[in-house]
């Protein structure tokens, strides 16, 4: 009986993800500050939440019922209005855009829709942990290449983490179906340059490979850096699936609305997966995101547009947490985008006894013991590496800074208190 109903082999051994484990850790030990998961602990823009409130009490009963399976009409039309000028071509809202249950499902539909048994998929490490799992579920074979820091210097930025060109080139074979790109990058905050994107694009074109570009942090880029969409490079539109997120765009991660856009012939595969998995996403939240886009489109040339003001809002938070970490023994990588900081904790190694923690990897032992002792929860980056490369993440911890100023100030207080006690 037990053997008959075991977990199918395609799901591995059913290990808990880092998110399941660390949410439980937070519940058990109740650290004073949770800088683990990437979501704001303060309100989204008022017009965004007001839109959903208005919809909940709307006179239109159809806003509480199923909508079009591949995306609420008002939403896909507004997504097309946002992205068409950014990619330099007119997006067809009904054939080149798919609304999904968060960017997570957009990734799932893209990977399951295009990867077949034995196909190889190139994954840049560190990576969002679901990439590996989804590739294997599709019968694919992930091939990993790590971004590595040029040096271990202080004041290192995410731009200092780079790919080795020869190593990347060597991963492309006649079995390569797809490369997954994440820019701006989680967890490093790297914003890939035009030259770096051209290298990737040229290899994809040379070997006839798809590029899935996870761009959910697209609006969180700090000057003078610029986000470049790889789909805009010569001859890359035809082979690129770009993924976005309302949760990241409007600071409403709990709404779980994402999207993908790409040529219709590539989109067809995503639609097949979506219609037989999720089928349709909630109408009220899709309508609310559509209305929120309309507000931002009406002020797209104004600095008040949330697409631009969000990065300005986050910059002082980033700088505060970078300074706090530096002053308390960490060596942080300053991110050019996103809302995470990866920081080397090894200078604190002599101050913390990790022997009571039983985890295999040092960063798990450090982040758990640090949460218990200092009251500050971070995420272990080795979770974002393949088994063979987990050692590359062990000296680091990932901190999220899209948090209330008072909680970042509390982090500073707790780190100083912990250091003073050692």
Automatic annotation (TrEMBL):
Chemical reaction(s) catalysed: an S-substituted L-cysteine + H2O = a thiol + pyruvate + NH4(+)
Highest taxon of source: Eukaryota
Ranges for domain Aminotransferase class I/classII large: 32-409
GO MF annotation, one: kynurenine-oxoglutarate transaminase activity
GO CC terms in record: mitochondrion
Cofactor: pyridoxal 5'-phosphate
A GO biological-process term: L-kynurenine catabolic process
Record key words, sorted: Acetylation, Aminotransferase, Lyase, Pyridoxal phosphate, Transferase
Pathway where it operates: Amino-acid degradation; L-kynurenine degradation; kynurenate from L-kynurenine: step 1/2
Record-linked InterPro entries: Aminotransferase_I/II_large, Kynurenine-oxoglutarate_AT, PyrdxlP-dep_Trfase, PyrdxlP-dep_Trfase_major, PyrdxlP-dep_Trfase_small
Family label: Belongs to the class-I pyridoxal-phosphate-dependent aminotransferase family.
Subunit field text: Homodimer.
PANTHER family: FI04487P
Name recorded for this polypeptide: Kynurenine--oxoglutarate transaminase 3
